[in-house]
Amino acid sequence: MTTTHAQPAAHASGLPTGRRHDLLRLATAGSVDDGKSTLVGRLLYDTKSVLADQLDAVERVSRERGLDVADLALLTDGLRAEREQGITIDVAYRYFSTATRSYVLADTPGHVQYTRNMVTGASTAELALILIDARHGVVEQTRRHLAVTGLLGVRHVAVAVNKMDLVDWDHARFEEIVAEFRRHAARFGIDDVVAVPVSALFGDNVVDRSDRAPWYAGPTLLEHLEAVPVGTDPSTQPFRLPVQHVIRPQSAQHRDYRGYAGRLASGVVRPGDEVVVLPAGRRTTVSGIDRARADGTIESLEVAFAPQSVVLRLAEDIDVSRGDLLAAADTPGLVTRSLSGTVAVLSDRPVRHRDRVLVRVGTRTVRALVEDVVDQLDIETMEQRTAPDGLALNAIGRVRIKLAEDVAIDDYRALRRTGAFLLIDDSDGSTLAAGMADAPDRSAGEGI
């Protein structure tokens, strides 16, 4: 196999990277009529991420509706049902960029009935942008957004207190809302909160600084998005690679080649590193790292790091299959047959006590039994209560699960990608719930 050695430009951590500039994934959330669609439209418009024909269409429709200014919400409210009902019913991904950073924005629903969509949008986000109507302040749906944000481990939160023009840019009102928001955020372990007073309709403090709030000395919303730390230094986390595919070329030229393909979930790996194959616990050494180029040729890497997709070659010819996890030998995590964690229900089928389901962790899927629905989070009181009838659509609660086979899983708080799991309907393969694992239970599995 012909290979070339690649060593791209240096990353701040000392690891190589081929990225030209940063990528920030963020998710928006807000209650109905908080102005979220207008704010997203304003970000797109003021960063010049809108095509001329799109803007012409928005301006034409706005004039037909008798509006004095362009209704930028039309840039994002593309679904007919949303226009008719005033609610967003799906997750829409928007893309924009500046000279400093590229953005993937998950525009998630605001209505309580679509909490599952926020779970989907926020699952890969590094920042949650939560809107609050300055007239109404923190409401029940704001608390729900904070609960999802905290449970999913989103590291940064920006709160845009919108429609400040409708409260005459009252400084005291802004501070009152922010203080209450921070109190609720703290209950979910969220301490990185930046609040910005804005008027999305007129663009105040979204991209351009406003002179209507001389009392505000903080960043505009975009300035904060430009400055928030992006990503996690892979060298600070243990190596994890869920095996997606075993590569065994059939040609005579490559008959001895055997590699294990996957996307690094965390950490760094180099040839010579000792790794363990989980859940079996076999130890071996990495003999080489390969990566396919766009032109179809293969390059050999001296180091790989999350979230790169690579093929690892191992020193010994041992049994490794799709669904196995390659992990750092000195920090392998835990193998277990008992799983507990918090789930957000995504299906019309409730999650009930004694349900037989499939559990997917990384690339591994095993049969399982819901041993117990421990409790459900009451968003209004922020307390845990019993759930005798199980967890219905959009509910958030804790479960205990018994697995038919060993799985390797991490504490979600420590490693999001290898600490997440899905509950799947074993009859039709549909997703029932997304879960976040607690520290694995050693009582039913052996540590490696």
> What structural class is derived from the secondary structure elements?
alpha+beta
Could you tell me the strand content as a percent range? Answer: 25-35%
Overall shape: it is globular
Helix content bin? 10-25%
Straight-line N-to-C gap: 35 Å
Main beta sheet: 9 strands, mixed
CATH topology of the largest domain: Rossmann fold
CATH homologous superfamily title of the largest domain: P-loop containing nucleotide triphosphate hydrolases
Provide a count of the helices: 8
Number of domains: 3
The CATH C-level name of the largest domain is Alpha Beta
CATH architecture assignment of the largest domain: 3-Layer(aba) Sandwich
In total, the number of strands is 24
Please tell me the overall pLDDT: 83
Low-confidence segments, given as residue ranges, are 1-14, 16-20, 78-89, 442-448
Quaternary state reads single chain
